[in-house]
Amino acid sequence: MDQAELTTEQVLSRDIPWETYMSTKLISSTSLQLLRRYDHRSESHRAQLLDDDGPSYVRVFVRVLRDIFKEDTVEYVLALIDEMLAANPKRGRLFHDSTLADEDTYEPFLSETRHTHMTGFCIEYPVICFSNWVLNKLNTLVYVHSDSYQLLWKGNWFIQEKSCKILALIVSVRPKNQNGVVSNGDASDGKKPFTTIDDVLIGLVKWLCEQLKKPFHPTRGVPTAINCLSTLLKEPVVRSSFVQADGVKLLVPLISPASTQQSIQLLYETCLCIWLLSYYEPAIEYLATSRTLPRLIDVVKSSTKEKVVRVIVLTLKNLMSKGTLGAQMVDLQLPQVVQSLKAQAWSDEDLLEALNSLEEGLKDNIKKLSSFDMYKQEVLLGHLDWSPMHKDPIFWRENITNFEENDFQIPRVLITILDTSSDPRTLAVACYDISQFIQHHPAGRIIVTDLKAKERVMKLMNHENAEVTKNALLCIQRLFLGAKYASFLQV
Questions:
Q1: Residues near 393 by beta carbon (within 8 Å), at least 6 away in sequence
Q2: What one-character DSSP code corresponds to residue 121?
Q3: For the chain, how far is it from start to end, CA to CA, in angstroms?
Q4: What is the average pLDDT across 268-292?
Q5: Cα separation of 118 and 134, whole Å?
Q6: Residue 370: DSSP 8-state
Q7: What pLDDT does residue 152 have?
Q8: Average pLDDT, the chain
Q9: Which PANTHER family match (predicted)?
Q10: d(CA 1, CA 385)
Q11: Contacts of residue 224, Cβ cutoff 8 Å, sequence gap at least 6
């Protein structure tokens, strides 16, 4: 059977030759007793065993994964651990029990070297000499090779997926006082240092990014990676490593409207990742310059899933005060989207509160965006867009005298833009703003005529872009008609 399509139930139906492993010293007699007591028992019986002596079973599972390479057995033990944690995720704390202080519980998943013991010997690589009988036995139990063997990287898909899920869970439930230097205790007596928490987290991030780039499984690789990331991005080390690995850009294409239940869950967990990253400044820098914001707004417009809407609204609320993101949200018509969302019947009070908070924040942004200083900065940079102040009558009424500053500097720059810019949007906005100056300033028509704007605007009436010709026509009409009649013209 294709390992990628294996199920936990199929794996757990196997009979593992534990007695043979003991006879070749791959497991101890104590481990055999524990495994026989646990193996193929009812869920309630296993639960009782874990309640009574959970750390002992964890120790046995970890040692089997460390010492035995036989794929069927590795899959089996991973399935046992996964089943145990799925029934009660709090059991992940068993891996951090004080009685396991001498056990590196992460080693089988990430260690560069794995070894085992047999008949008192440590199996070294390469194997130099064993009797034919021992070699035959060994070949039925383990794969002997000279490469390092990391479950997270070198197993089949079943092994990789289970390893990722197990690692993510046991890391997420570790004691809060664990300092990140070691996993469960301190290595001593000159032994090899234990796998650190940072080692585990960085190793997981590397594997997760690889799944997002080139999924090991065509349909489950990406969902598995996103599911684990949505848990792990709470960790500062994971956020830092993920951003350094350029992982944020791998999330953006996944933010798109979803219809099926599976795709909705993937979308939700992707947005959850973005929300977690919205608390991390280096990630925000990337979010601000990518297509993240328009994609989030496109999704929230059409989504009917409350949990998806909630996490996006909370993300937008976090991002609103960061740099120019608030201005971008206004440009993307988010205030209107929020109004539409508020009109819908949501049962989640936190969502309604977040929508109200987002709405207030957007109003504040609109006020800031309508200031003349912001407008002046935009004009002087020479890159114009339809930001709110351009079509806000209040802005023009309250700021029209500011256009007289520095010998009408802003009208002069707007007219210069008509000659120098090749961007259709900039040309259209410049024509519109000149028409607004003509309409609202008492001497607007005379000033614009003296600055020789008429010829430049008329040239643009033949522009290939419809938006440019439309606003050039409006400007010429206001220039010829004067303020008395220009107020009747509509865009």
A1: none
A2: E
A3: 67
A4: 93
A5: 9
A6: T
A7: 83
A8: 85
A9: V-TYPE PROTON ATPASE SUBUNIT H
A10: 58
A11: 161, 164, 165, 211, 217
**Do 488 and 449 contact (CB within 8 A), yes or no?**
no
What are the CA-CA distances from residue 87 to residues 47, 80, 213, 489 (Å)?
Answer: 9, 11, 31, 69
Residue 141, amino acid: L
How many CB atoms lie under 10 A from the CB of residue 366?
A: 17
Can you tell me the distance from the alpha carbon of 148 to that of 69, in angstroms, rounded to the nearest whole number?
Answer: 11
Residue 117's SS3 state is strand
Once rounded to an integer, what is the mean pLDDT over residues 154-179? 86
Question: 């600055």: which residue's tokens?
Answer: 451
Helix/strand/coil for 356: helix
Domains by residue range for the chain, with CATH: 1-213 (no CATH), 372-486 (1.25.40.150)
Sign of dihedral through CA atoms 314, 319, 320, 326? Answer: negative
Give the pLDDT confidence score for residue 2 in this predicted structure.
57
**How many Å apart are CA 8 and CA 189, to the nearest integer?**
39
pLDDT tens, residue by residue, 118-128 = 333 333 333 33
Of 210, 276, 214, the residue nearest 239 (C-alpha): 276
Among 301, 407, 406, 318, CA closest to 361:
318
**pLDDT tens digits for range 27-69:** 999 999 999 999 999 999 999 999 999 999 999 999 999 999 8
CB 430 within 8 A of CB 421: yes
Tell me the pTM.
Answer: 0.70
Judge residue 68's burial from the number of C-beta atoms within 10 Å of its C-beta, 0-12 exposed, 13-18 middle, 19 or more buried. Answer: buried
Q: Are 224 and 211 in contact (CB under 8 A)?
A: yes
Highest mean pLDDT pick, 138-147, 302-311, 482-491 = 302-311
The helix (H) or strand (E) run that includes residue 48 is helix 43-67
> What are the backbone dihedrals phi and psi of residue 364, each rounded to the nearest 5 degrees, phi first?
-60, -40
- How many Å is the Cα radius of gyration of the chain? 33
On whether the CB atoms of residues 270 and 248 are closer than 8 A, the answer is no
Q: Which residues pair with 324 in a beta bridge?
A: none
